[in-house]
Amino acid sequence: MSYRIQVHPEAGSLLQTLAPHVLLRLGRALADLAEALASGEDAGASEVRVDDCVLRLVVDHAHRLLEVIRIEQREAVAPAWAGTL
């Protein structure tokens, strides 16, 4: 039996604003984590990072549920030399 993935409404709202390629990568990362958990691996993950996004997670092993509770977008850090040329 596999793990279900549930996205809290606030996190879902932010997901709708992300670029399609980021959504695909986030989805793949969550699917990989759910697969690892279902196969018995102790992933112990509380977050998934893709590009400048961090998904905060809660894993409920009893209900085989992977909950995305929050998404944070981090600003890309520009190199120190950026803008000096």
Plain-language structure description:
With 85 residues, this protein is of the alpha+beta class. The protein has a single domain, classed as YaeB-like fold (2-Layer Sandwich), CATH 3.30.2310.20. The protein is built from two helices and four strands, in the order βααβββ. Strands 1-4-3-2 form a four-stranded mixed β-sheet. β2 and β3 form a beta hairpin. The longest helix is centred in the middle third of the chain and has 19 residues. The protein is globular.
Question: CATH architecture, please?
Answer: 2-Layer Sandwich
Reading off the top of the CATH hierarchy, the class is best stated as: Alpha Beta
Estimate the strand proportion.
25-35%
- In the CATH hierarchy, the third-tier topology is known as YaeB-like fold
Query: Which bin fits the share of residues in helices?
Result: 25-40%
Q: What is the N-to-C order of secondary-structure elements (H for helix, E for strand)?
A: EHHEEE
Average pLDDT, rounded to a whole number, is: 84
Lateral strand order in the biggest sheet: 1-4-3-2
Q: Quick one: CATH superfamily?
A: RelE-like
Distance between the termini: 56 Å
What is the number of domains?
Answer: 1
How many strand units?
A: 4
Largest sheet: 4 strands, mixed
- Count of helical segments? 2
CA-based shape: globular
Q: What class do helices, strands and sheet pairing give?
A: alpha+beta
Q: Would you identify the regions where 5 or more consecutive residues have pLDDT less than 50?
A: none
